[in-house]
């Protein structure tokens, strides 16, 4: 992997998506200098946002999520995360459509919407076009916008509002492998036509790359392969590729000071860490709704493992010779299993 990589879409958030230290271990091993760390869906580890802002202001930018069973709870959660230092909010397509107040909060703050499915169809694209027009300081990033078997003749998938959105000066597409790609046959040629269309509309100055750490390990992949696949699809030179995997994200996310809390929240020191590292006092209802014991699907069409098992696997893998040498998680697991059988 080349030097000066910026990951525009990684995950963090305990227990399911790992700790801040684990994210940094992943970045260091792959020469990833900076990363946008996005809370995974249904994992409201809000304190990790303030922890990242304090400990790694030059390396990490955080993106939050809507969370809560009611509209008011979701709005409260979004306000909390933006106030404590999140640079934006990740929105599922349904959330963007059903909760306009959340988009309003993001827009009024001049922050980023990480819009999953922003280019899914003309209706969703029009929604985001209207939002960008209404909030001239807000910006839109679109991870997970990879679609197979694309045709430029499909009126619901190309042209119209989708084309206008991709060509918007404040739109940035993020190439992230989808679950469908992980289950499809390498080199995923079913996605080639879409990639070519995206590149034609956005150009190299409005595209980025994201690994989706640690999900890529659940799919038995690594960052090198996740990046090289996109490089093989794009007809671009080295300077244009550098913009996609580094320069664009640096210019958009890491130019200027990191967002910090300015709202006077009551903070409390994290146990067993430096006293300057603090976390937010979270409303009680967040913990009450936090599904900490969800299983995690390992490997395409594989098995669901308890989260406690996956936490131990990830921690062991990130400190293993297999990880350091670029070998897959399945190789690490097999080696550990072999040792247990032999002992």
TrEMBL record:
- InterPro entries attached to this UniProt entry: Amidohydro-rel (IPR006680), Metal_Hydrolase (IPR032466)
Domain Amidohydrolase-related: start-end pairs: 7-251
Fetch the SUPFAM superfamilies from UniProt: Metallo-dependent hydrolases
One Pfam annotation, family name? Amidohydro_2
Superkingdom as given in the UniProt entry:
Bacteria
Q: Where is the signal peptide?
A: none
Q: What name does UniProt use for this protein?
A: Amidohydrolase
